[in-house]
C-alpha cells in the first residue's frame, strides 16, 4: 500500500519473497509488513510415478452384483486390526470370498451364487487380490445407503465398487476404485 503523502513511499507496503530450490526442498513464503516478518515453510516430496488408474483399459474378468446388505454384514465382520482384505472371485464355489487376517485372528466370508445374495455373476478368469483395508472401508457410508453393489475386477486386479443408491426422484450411483496391494501374479 502506498502512502497518500508520497506515492513512492513504500514503508506501508507488504513485500513477499517466495523461494523453492527444486524437487524435495522446502517451499518458502516470507511476508514482511510494517517491520513484521512471517515465514512459512512447506515440506515437499518427490512423488513416485503415478499409478495408471484407467480401469477400462484392461478387460473386466470378474463382475457380480450383490445385495448390499450382505456386503455390509461382511464389512462389519472384518478384523479392524488387519492391514489388508483379500477378495477372491471364482467360477466354482465359493464364488466370492472376503478374508482378513489381523491381531484378533482371521475372518473369512464366502458366498454362493444364491439368487437371494447375488443378482448376477460373471467370472472369465479366477483371481485373488489384496487391498488396503483402511481404504476399502472408506466406502462404508455409500454402502450403508445402497441397495445393490456391482463389484468388478479387471485383469490388473483393480477393484471397482459401484453402489446403487435409491433417491426420492431416481437412482444414483457412487463409484470407488481400488488398486491392489499385490497383484495375483506376484503372490508367488
TrEMBL record:
Compartment(s) where it occurs, according to its Swiss-Prot or TrEMBL record: Nucleus
Keywords: DNA damage, DNA repair, Hydrolase, Nucleus
One Pfam family named in its UniProt record: Rad1
Keyword DNA repair: yes
EC number: 3.1.11.2
Molecular-function GO term, any one: double-stranded DNA 3'-5' DNA exonuclease activity
Signal peptide (from-to): none
Keyword Hydrolase listed: yes
InterPro entries named among the record's database cross-references: DNA_clamp_sf, Rad1_Rec1_Rad17
Domain of life, source organism: Eukaryota
Biological-process GO terms, alphabetical: DNA damage checkpoint signaling; DNA repair
Cellular component GO terms held in the UniProt record: checkpoint clamp complex
Family to which the UniProt record says this protein belongs: Belongs to the rad1 family.
Designated name of the protein: Checkpoint clamp complex protein Rad1
Organism this protein belongs to: Coemansia guatemalensis
Amino acid at each position: 500500500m502506498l502512502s497518500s503523502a508520497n506515492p513512492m513511499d513504500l514503508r506501508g507496503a507488504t513485500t513477499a519473497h517466495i523461494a523453492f530450490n527444486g524437487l524435495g526442498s522446502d517451499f518458502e513464503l516470507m511476508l514482511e509488513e510494517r517491520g513484521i516478518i512471517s515465514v512459512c515453510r512447506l515440506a515437499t516430496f518427490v512423488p513416485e510415478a503415478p499409478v495408471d488408474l484407467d480401469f477400462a483399459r484392461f478387460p473386466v474378468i470378474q463382475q457380480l452384483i450383490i445385495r448390499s446388505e450382505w456386503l455390509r454384514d461382511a464389512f462389519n465382520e472384518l478384523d479392524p486390526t488387519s492391514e489388508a482384505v483379500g477378495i477372491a472371485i471364482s467360477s466354482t464355489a465359493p464364488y466370492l470370498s472376503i478374508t482378513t487376517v489381523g491381531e484378533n485372528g482371521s475372518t473369512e466370508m464366502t458366498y454362493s451364487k444364491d439368487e437371494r445374495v447375488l443378482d448376477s455373476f460373471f467370472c472369465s478368469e479366477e483371481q485373488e487380490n489384496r487391498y488396503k483395508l483402511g481404504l476399502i472401508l472408506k466406502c462404508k457410508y455409500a454402502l450403508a445407503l445402497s441397495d445393490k453393489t456391482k463389484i468388478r475386477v479387471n485383469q490388473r486386479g483393480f477393484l471397482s465398487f459401484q453402489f446403487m443408491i435409491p433417491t426420492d426422484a431416481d437412482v444414483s450411483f457412487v463409484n470407488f476404485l481400488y488398486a491392489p496391494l499385490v497383484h495375483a501374479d506376484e503372490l508367488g
